[in-house]
Amino acid sequence: MCDQTFLVNVFGSCDKCFKQRALRPVFKKSQQLSYCSTCTEIMATEGLHENETLASLKSEAESLKGKLEEERAKLHDVELHQVAERVEALGQFVMKTRRTLKGHGNKVLCMDWCKDKRRIVSSSQDGKVIVWDSFTTNKEHAVTMPCTWVMACAYAPSGCAIACGGLDNKCSVYPLTFDKNENMAAKKKSVAMHTNYLSACSFTNSDMQILTASGDGTCALWDVESGQLLQSFHGHGADVLCLDLAPSETGNTFVSGGCDKKAMVWDMRSGQCVQAFETHESDINSVRYYPSGDAFASGSDDATCRLYDLRADREVAIYSKESIIFGASSVDFSLSGRLLFAGYNDYTINVWDVLKGSRVSILFGHENRVSTLRVSPDGTAFCSGSWDHTLRVWA
Amino acid sequence: IEDIITKMQDDKTGGVPIRTVKSFLSKIPSVVTGTDIVQWLMKNLSIEDPVEAIHLGSLIAAQGYIFPISDHVLTMKDDGTFYRFQAPYFWPSNCWEPENTDYAIYLCKRTMQNKARLELADYEAENLARLQRAFARKWEFIFMQAEAQVKIDRKKDKTERKILDSQERAFWDVHRPVPGCVNTTEMDIRKCRRLKNPQKVKKSVYGVTEESQAQSPVHVLSQPIRKTTKEDIRKQITFLNAQIDRHCLKMSKVAESLIAYTEQYVEYDPLITPAEPSNPWISDDVALWDIEMSKEPSQQRVKRWGFSFDEILKDQVGRDQFLRFLESEFSSENLRFWLAVQDLKKQPLQDVAKRVEEIWQEFLAPGAPSAINLDSHSYEITSQNVKDGGRYTFEDAQEHIYKLMKSDSYARFLRSNAYQDLLLAKKKVWLL
User: Which of B249, B349, B398 is nearest residue A228 as measured by Cβ atoms?
Assistant: First the structure.
């Protein structure tokens, strides 16, 4: 007779996979469970996974970043301005203020053009949002928001509505009516809701959808009619300060810039980030697509503007000068993409030759920071708004 | 920004000649002339235009790092006016937000000193009167503090005192500017949170401790910065892996492409190539816009339609011409489908389902009146999507049709007589 030891096996349904198996006792966070042998093994390896520390993951990410940089550097065979040497230099530029719009009682924070090439909407710190016919300098509509610091405003593609928001954490849409008896504020529609200030908003190519960026670190796409959230975009590590939609007819992407020094390109359909760029040394205040949609420019507190190409997945040019020590608050391209206009916190606007990387002109005129700048839809002029309470149209 | 200025300042003390100047009866210690500053800026920051250097100098002055010794207005001029550097104690990067009590003490102190040149300016006298009314009850305390400060000052060396007095005055010029001057201490509210001094501890300029500290009326933005979690890093790793696999273009190709695009469009850029007949903003004549609104496209505009398929789709008139061409070929359903899907994406959410059904019936359902030609794979996907009825139902189909039109119909349109005639600006009678 040999001694045989028998292992008593409890049969039953496993607490994890619910299959009928031989079970073993397992302790998880001081609670006793019964797992089958397969699940026990899985749990053991998961435990290992849990122990994969934050540090080890971070180092894996770092090494991948290094590898990515290596791969990209292989394709960096020449600089843009070198290739651009063969391009004819631009002549002397004489750009002057052609219109000055006075009427805001406090700092102008944001502005946008209407598709009709002459109307603009602007918003300021005192809560006022004004619609002007900038050609005649007449004010056509004015509405007072219930909050101060209206940092974002946009004109609807149809020209029949405007959107704005700021410290109220919301984006509201106001239909524009020409009936003098109607109070604009009465028809206000609250569309977006964020958990921090609204820093930027833009209509997509329809009056029915709005894209917003907020100090809560996210961007979001909303249906105007219902106020429903269609898609949200998470990924920035800090406040998102600006956004711009890709100019293509079939495009579904946009770029955003934030206080985490990153510029990120998003797919509007899936909510995923498709590309990211992190070469700025400080907050990115403004991003704008190059007219072909293949590249975009950014302006930052580090006193530089940079051009990033989406196909090369890299920064391709830096626009900076030793004498420029104040941050760039706002950038936009001329129609052909040859000129980049940038408004700075030192009250000036610098005009850059995009291809050659040199500065073409410096424009004085504002008496305080330039906070916003946009080129008109047909490229005939651009408008700048400033903390000196005025807007100027230059050509 | 402040960091950059601070760095500059450190360099400067080494570079610009600071002298003591003899003038009339007294010596003016530790000054620099405006011209010297402008020269230094131009040399060390490679500025070509003196106007720029003056502007930059003025800004540095306005921020409070240098100041004219005999003026309250903080600007800089390119001449022999004297300027002095501000003491690091008073630099804006120390995040000063001086209380009105400190300002009251300062103004009070000034009135106690009997020197003619230290008399209060009009706006300062007004401010003092206002503060006296506001702080009526505390005035004794303020007065005492002012007296104490005067005593401390008297103990100092005469030259040192002159310098300190002027620096103190400049400090207040920044924080309580002359009416009509820009207040450079104003901050962009979005950046307020990340000041070096987030608790906004009120440091008193004169070391005065107050029991009643008024709350700062700045909008309180308390947002905990998200800590990166393991999940975040795992997402990042997935993202990075995808990026590494991405096919990218060489810089040379990219540069060529950007240059080509710009060169092609330069003639359309009104800020580079003057617009015909004139730029409305410059000439005050809206002729240019009137022409664009008319149904008669200019030669230049027609040429642009040939640049890319997107161009003709963007331009209303171009689309119409293209549509007319397709109708003449009995193949307009493709373009109409594409336009319908674009329109679908612009609809409010509540109308989407209905439109999806309409588009399906018109273009894709068996026996549809404007049947479009899709390969079986796309058709499969689309018919599946229709069941869900979202805005992106026809995305796949639209892409196919777009490519089809681009390579086929668009190319033929550009070669067509209709287009060529427009391009050559030949007059043609349109048969309606």
Answer: B349
Q: Which positions in chain B touch A71 (Cβ < 8 Å)?
A: 244, 248
Structural domain boundaries in chain B: 1-85, 100-175, 286-424
Task: Determine whether A36 is exposed, middle or buried from the number of CB atoms within 10 Å of its CB (0-12, 13-18, 19+).
Answer: buried
pLDDT digits (tens, 9 = 90+) for B360-373: 888 888 888 888 88
Domain match, A27 and A133 both: no
Question: What is the rounded CA–CA span in Å between residue A343 and residue A201?
Answer: 19
Based on the number of CB atoms within 10 Å of its own CB, is B81 exposed (0-12), middle (13-18) or buried (19 or more)? middle
> What ipTM goes with this model?
0.82
Let me know: does A176 contact A141? Beta carbons within 8 Å: yes
Nearest CB neighbour to A395, from listed B233, B281, B292:
B281
Number of domains in chain A: 2
Instruction: List the Cα angle A125/A131/A134 in 5-degree steps.
Output: 110
Residue type present at position A47: G
Identical fold, B1-85 and B286-424? no
pTM of the predicted protein model: 0.84
A205 and A323 fall within a common domain: yes
Residue B4 tokens, joined: 């950059």
Q: Is residue A52 part of a domain?
A: no
Cα-based distances in Å from A97 to A134, A146, A306, A381: 12, 32, 26, 10
Q: pLDDT tens digit string along B159-194?
A: 777 778 778 887 888 888 877 777 777 777 877 766
